[in-house]
Structures are given as structure tokens and as C-alpha cells.
Amino acid sequence: PIYFDYAATTPVHADVLKAMLPYFSEEFGNAGSSQHYYGWAAEEAIETSRKKISSYFGVQARQVVFTSGATESNNLCILGYLKDRPKGHLITSSIEHKAVLQVFQELSHQGWSVTYLQPNALGCIEVSDLEQAIRSDTTLISLMMVNNETGNVTDFQSISQLCKQANIIFHSDATQAIGKLDFTQYVHLPDLLSFSGHKIYGPKGIGGIIFNSNVALKPLTYGGGQERGLRPGTLPVQQIVALAACFDLMPLLIESVHKILTFKHKILKGLIGEYVLNSSDNQSVPHIISISIPNIDWEELYRRIPAIAVSNGSACNAKSHLPSHVMKAIGHSDALALSTLRISLSYLTHESDVDFLIDYLNKQLFNR
Ligand code: PLP
By its UniProt entry, which Pfam families does this protein fall under (predicted)? Predict the structure, then answer.
């Protein structure tokens, strides 16, 4: 099948693979704990990588922490900040990834009060709703930058400013934003930002946090003191070098946004059956197009389209066959929520792929 599921994961770019390969078997040292060449070489590779990533975000190298991926980053940011603090009020949204929502569910069990903001009719979180939800005991706000099911973008610039003024910590899951939004243009970053390598043409199992150094994070695990004690464990040098190499791809990724936008328009114009568009027209990244198809049940829907690899809304819901919580939050019935296709595009997508997709969906779903 032709791959249209780049929001689920991406292939490792050749340059990224090339950069990481020497660190498997030639430069295989243990960073930080060895008093010899091998350890120093590994440490140098890690610190060079840290510097490269931090400079992309315009922060200091010490503001980068390496983790196993965005799930761990989200957990460490939220739980690590709230650990040992007096229990107060937290704000997130009903359309966050499970790697944030489940954390808040746990916090709520622990006695924190949690407000879940609901999206507007276009599936976006409104800053004015957030402003209204803030209380005097609001401790932390977590809102994702780009929604993984719809591609809708949250106004994190305004929220960062708002949180700074209100003295509230702002965490944002930027997993789907990096490589799609141009971070070199942004002045206001969240206090805590999570991201993952495998969504930006790097390997699976590596991610990171960018954090404001005024924010006191506490570790969730204990060990050999790596990452200044925040995330102990022998550092996966090859993964870290690969993650840094992904940031060399940013010009390529950002340059391709315009091409991807023309593909999005072509797809939406080309589909000639009945569908509901779940992605905002002008407040979303063009890489993610979510449509729901009324009157075809989801099993039948997926039986009809074996030649394309698309997602049914969210990778982590794929096995459970439960309607996606994001589609439900937008207001869809269970049936419509289940009959959702998430088409996600990349700089690797060719115009001929897009043409095939349009013809194929028209034929298989709309009998045209
Ligand atoms: N957050 C968002 C928005 C995602 O899209 C994903 C990917 O599924 C994750 C978190 C989880 O990332 P990881 O696979 O790196 O743990």
C-alpha cells in the first residue's frame, strides 16, 4: 500500500541513519562514566547533539533533556514538575494525546483538580476558554501544539505569554508540531516542551524535553545521575546523535510545507463524495487531513481501501476499535467517529500518490 500515515511514524532519513551508524560499533563508549577515549568520544557526541538541538530552539544546551520519546517526555514534564507540590488546579484539554490525558487521569486520582477544555466547532482550543478556566490555584497548563488526529494548531504563542503573566507553568506536547511549524519564527516558547524522534525522520525510542531553566523538575526514576539526575540511565548515544541529525532536516521539512498545502487543497477539492472535514481550514498544519465518512461503517470502510495506508484517527486507538476521544470531543456520534480517515502527508509524498489517493477514494468510497 501507499503510505499516508506519516503522523503515526516516519522512515529514518538516510542522513540520520548515516550519522548514527558509527555509534553502534566504532564509537560505542559509555558517555560520562569512563575515563578514557571511548567514553569521552561518546560524551562529546552527546554534547554536540544537545547543542545542535538547543540552538534550533534558541535556548541553552543545558535546557535539553533526552528521553525515550514523547510519552516519557510528557510524563516527566507534568509529573516531574508537580511532584511534591501542594495539590491545586490543573488545565488540559479533552483532545490531548493519551500520553497526556492518562497522566491527568492519574493526577486526578491523586487528588488534583483537573479542568478539561473542550474544542470549539472547528476542533480548536480557544485561548479565551483557557483564560476563563484559570483559577488562583492553577499550577500547570498542558495543551498540545498540533493535534495528532486533526492537525489543528493551538495558539501556543499567546498561551505562553498568558501563562508567564499569570505565573503558571505551561507544558506543550510539540510532537506533531516539529518539522511542520517553523520554530525559528517563534519568540515565546512554553516552559516545558515535549518531542519525539520518530515523527521527524529519526529512529523510534528517542525524544526530548526543552525546558525553561527556572522550572524545577524532579526525577521520576533514580539511578546513575545522567541528565543531571533528571533522567538517569546510560545514554543511547546513537539515538541521540540521530535525533540531532533530524534537526539538520528542518530546512527541508519547512520548505516542503507549501507543497504539502497544495496537496491538501487538491485532495479536499478532488474528493467528490460526502465527507465531514475534521481539520480546520486555516488553523491546521496541511500534513494531517482528517475526514469522517457518514453512512459507511468503519469495518466496511477499511475493507474497501487496502491499497492505502491511512490511520483511523489515532494510532493508539487502532487496536481498541473504540471511537477516538478527539472525534467524540468534536461532537461526532460513535459511528461517525469510527468512520474516520486520517491521511497524513510528508515531504516524501509525490503528486502521483496524491492523484492515486483521490481517484482511489472516489472509486472505493463514493462509487465515482
Ligand atoms: N504525543 C503526540 C501528539 C503524538 O502524536 C504521539 C505519537 O503517537 C505521542 C505523543 C507519543 O510519542 P512517542 O511514540 O514518542 O512516545
Answer: Aminotran_5 (PF00266)
